[in-house]
């Protein structure tokens, strides 16, 4: 900090000059009143300015501290001006005078300022103040015994003169104490500043005591040696003010060490006072002033002890509370949630009220963490917590169970109705995007709800959690924004009875172990390229020709059998493994395409790519490389944009898509009409193909409205120059309808289930092998279904 160093050097020079000069003048016995007075006026005004600069440069509590000290310094400067006037214009400076009133503004300002200094450990300002009073009172007792009592009994001066001359040393001791306390409890970046201020107060206190003594003897004159203390104090205040400004800009470090000195600090002088007083006859304490100080001292000691006890109690309560809170969001943690749930379940037994749980898991939270960084992820979790809190009553418990899992506990006479209402409200609150780091993020939760009715037997807390969890996974599976409520059928349908992804509640260890084990196996499977692909044919509706395939990932698991994407992609997403999985899929798919190519079958292959990966600017180069390695043309590859979350930087995504498209790769929008891919994608993103979601396809034979929408979407897509692919065609009737609507390509079990690469080869080469070549064999209906 160059500024502080410069000021410190300047201060040292001024100090040296002053000391040499005072010492020289003193040794010659000359009166140097005028110059001395002007020096004090100058320095105190300078001090006021430096304090004011510090106040302007810093913020918050520190600013308030420096404002108070600036007022103190202005008081001091005023006092100096008045004093100079008395000394120079009048022969005999009056005492006490207006100057004393101004001077005494300084201890008040500094007391307040030092108390306001931001501290680090838990001690309150009230306790600091009482410590100051205890120390000051003790010092008063000591000084009473040693100098004041003899002076007082000599009684030459008026009572007010006596009181004012006592006010200096007493107030000095109080500030000195407060400064030392503030120093001990200071935030690390202000510790040096407070050290300087404490030393400054000590210097000033020394000079003030000397002054009291000399004035009582009427032996003080400006230019006395004791002036050195004041000058040193003023200069130190100036340097401290500069350092305070500099330190605020410097990087902050936190100290974890507990400071124990403040605990015993005030008792040392108290002990001293006790010893000194005990040695004296009790009679010398029998004056009103000493009795008042004694009473104050007792009160201060009692008050301090009381504060110390309540503070400790508060601290303990705070620690206990924190043990039950999630440190990130401030919501209840798992421990508190379990407690509350257990309580609620007991109440349910007793009073037959119902208890409901709403479990929320954010979709693709991992993507936010991976693309925007963990601080953004934390910020998002906080915002999510706030939104959920905004949807519940005070009596409901909202907890974060770790990661991106939240739970709301509702126990209430009307929990059945009310919980559904809350769940819907919470879900709706996610309609608005979250703005994190300037990105607009559309985050969706999967929401599961389970209610234990007041008269339903045999539902334990663990069972209820499990049910809510199953409902949540059902919601996750359908990828809709609807709240899923637990029904007994879910249990039958849910293959993850073992609590694979579930909340490990009733048997935490086994469930955790299973989840961790599966994750480990998944990582291994990815590394060892054990994930495989099936290829579902895409068929031209007019010609019946195979026009391409869609690659669909599978995980052949040694115990669980062939796992479908719905069974392990949540895990992939959750643990940030989407990129390696996608790389694996692209490479495997292109390997298959190469094999077909070598057989003169030019079958384009489509791969699913989760939208957030498409914001990665290095993606196009990686894909081009994969194509070049196999000497394949870019036209063999189609990228299907899947997943429900497109990050705020739609620009980045558009950039990547543009690059891909320029190199000849086709872009398709997947699951159009599922509620996630919106119309705006069609306008904002460069695409070649729209894939109509099953939900827009299957019902077209019985639901006229869906049919109208499907027909309109097909027309719209054609208007935009896009190819339309209908998914999930299982019946001839649907296929016929689609042909009528002008749909271009279809995909579904009616034509073919997903096939292995060899099966695709056989199918395309076909029994009528004269057809093969660039135009694959026509495919009316898959034999593999028969
Ligand atoms: P998707 O992209 O919509 O894929 C079509 C899904 O519908 C496939 O399920 C397919 O087997 C199934 N399907 C095909 N025809 C029919 C039909 O006529 N009726 C019915 N009911 N279903 C049909 P799959 O293979 O289980 O894939 C599910 C989803 O997993 C895919 O939906 C896709 O979003 C995702 N996925 C699959 N492979 C990958 C991948 O490699 N990467 C990424 N990111 N996602 C993938
Ligand atoms: Ca797809
Ligand atoms: Ca799809």
UniProtKB/TrEMBL annotation:
SUPFAM superfamilies: EAL domain-like, Nucleotide cyclase
Annotated region described as Disordered, given as residue ranges: 766-786
Keywords: Membrane, Transmembrane, Transmembrane helix
InterPro entries: Biofilm_reg_signaling, EAL_dom, EAL_sf, GGDEF_dom, Nucleotide_cyclase, Rev_trsase/Diguanyl_cyclase
Domain of life per record: Bacteria
Any one Pfam family match given in the protein's UniProt record, by short name: EAL
Domain EAL: residue ranges: 515-768
Transmembrane segments: 7-26, 38-58, 65-86, 98-117, 129-147, 159-180, 192-213, 225-244, 256-278
Ranges of residues in domain GGDEF: 353-488
NCBIfam families given in the database record: GGDEF
Name of this protein: Bifunctional diguanylate cyclase/phosphodiesterase
């Amino acid at each position: 900090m160059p500024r502080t160093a410069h000021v410190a050097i300047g201060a040292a020079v001024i100090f040296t000059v002053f000391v040499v000069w005072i010492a020289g003048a003193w040794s010659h016995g000359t009166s140097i009143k005028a110059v001395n007075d002007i020096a004090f006026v100058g320095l105190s005004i300078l001090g006021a300015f430096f304090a004011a600069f510090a106040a302007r440069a810093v913020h918050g509590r520190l600013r308030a501290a420096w404002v108070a000290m600036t007022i103190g310094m202005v008081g001091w400067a005023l006092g100096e001006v008045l004093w100079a006037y008395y000394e120079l214009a009048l022969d005999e400076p009056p005492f006490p005078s207006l100057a004393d009133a101004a001077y005494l503004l300084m201890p008040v300002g500094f007391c307040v300022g030092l108390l306001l200094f931001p501290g680090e450990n838990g001690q309150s300002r009230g306790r600091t103040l009482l410590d100051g009073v205890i120390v000051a009172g003790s010092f008063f007792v000591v000084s009473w015994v040693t100098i004041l009592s003899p002076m007082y009994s000599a009684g030459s001066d008026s009572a007010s003169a006596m009181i004012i001359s006592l006010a200096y040393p007493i107030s000095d001791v109080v500030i000195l104490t407060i400064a030392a306390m503030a120093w001990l409890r200071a935030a690390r970046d202000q510790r040096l500043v407070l050290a300087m201020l404490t030393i400054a107060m000590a210097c000033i206190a020394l000079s003030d005591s000397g002054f009291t003594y000399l004035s009582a003897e009427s032996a003080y004159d400006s230019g006395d040696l004791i002036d050195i203390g004041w000058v040193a104090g003023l200069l130190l205040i100036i340097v401290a003010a500069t350092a305070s400004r500099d330190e605020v800009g410097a990087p902050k470090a936190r100290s974890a060490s507990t400071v124990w000195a403040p605990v015993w600090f005030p008792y040392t002088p108290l002990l001293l006072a006790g010893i000194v007083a005990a040695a004296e006859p009790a009679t010398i304490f029998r004056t009103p002033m000493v009795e008042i100080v004694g009473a104050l001292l007792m009160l201060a000691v009692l008050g301090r002890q009381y504060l110390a006890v309540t503070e400790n109690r508060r601290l303990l309560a705070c620690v206990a509370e924190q043990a039950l809170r999630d440190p990130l969001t401030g919501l209840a943690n798992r421990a508190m949630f379990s407690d509350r749930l257990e309580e609620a379940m007991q109440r349910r037994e007793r009073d037959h009220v119902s208890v409901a749980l709403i479990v929320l898991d954010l979709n693709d939270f991992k993507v936010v963490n991976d693309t925007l960084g963990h601080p953004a992820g934390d910020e998002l979790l906080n915002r999510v917590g706030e939104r959920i809190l905004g949807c519940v009553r005070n009596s409901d418990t909202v907890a974060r169970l770790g990661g991106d899992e939240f739970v709301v506990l509702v126990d209430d006479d009307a929990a059945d109705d009310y919980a559904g209402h809350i769940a819907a409200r919470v879900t709706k609150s996610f309609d608005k995007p979250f703005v994190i780091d300037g990105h607009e993020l559309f985050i969706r939760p999967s929401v599961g709800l389970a209610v234990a009715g007041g008269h339903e037997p045999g539902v334990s807390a663990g069972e209820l959690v499990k049910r809510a969890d199953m409902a949540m996974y059902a919601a996750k599976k359908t990828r809709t924004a609807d709240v899923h409520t637990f029904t007994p059928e879910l249990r039958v349908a849910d293959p993850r009875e073992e609590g694979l992804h579930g909340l490990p509640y009733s048997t935490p260890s086994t469930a955790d172990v299973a989840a961790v084990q599966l994750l480990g196996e998944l990582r291994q499977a990815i590394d060892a390229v054990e994930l495989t692909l099936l290829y579902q044919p895409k068929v031209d509706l007019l010609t019946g020709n195979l026009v391409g395939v869609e690659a669909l990932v599978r995980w052949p698991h040694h115990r669980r059998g062939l796992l479908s994407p719905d069974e392990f992609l949540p895990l992939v997403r959750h643990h940030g493994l989407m990129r390696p999985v996608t790389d694996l899929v692209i490479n495997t798919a292109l390997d298959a395409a190469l094999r077909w190519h070598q057989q003169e079958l030019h079958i384009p292959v489509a791969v699913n790519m989760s939208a957030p990966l498409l914001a990665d600017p290095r993606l196009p180069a990686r894909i081009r490389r994969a194509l070049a390695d196999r000497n394949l043309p870019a036209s063999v590859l189609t990228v299907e944009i899947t997943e429900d979350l497109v990050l705020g930087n739609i620009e980045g995504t558009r950039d990547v898509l543009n690059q891909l498209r320029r190199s000849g790769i086709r872009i398709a929008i997947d699951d159009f009409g599922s509620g996630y891919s919106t119309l705006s994608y069609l306008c904002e993103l460069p695409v070649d193909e729209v894939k109509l979601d099953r939900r827009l396809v299957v019902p077209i034979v019985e639901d006229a409205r869906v049919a109208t929408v499907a027909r309109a979407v097909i027309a719209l897509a054609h208007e935009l120059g896009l190819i339309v692919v209908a998914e999930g065609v299982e019946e001839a009737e649907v296929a016929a309808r689609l042909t009528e609507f002008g749909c271009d390509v279809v995909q579904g079990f009616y034509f073919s289930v997903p096939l292995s690469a060899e099966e695709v080869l056989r199918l395309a080469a076909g029994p009528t092998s004269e057809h093969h070549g660039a135009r694959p064999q026509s495919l009316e209906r898959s034999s593999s279904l028969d």
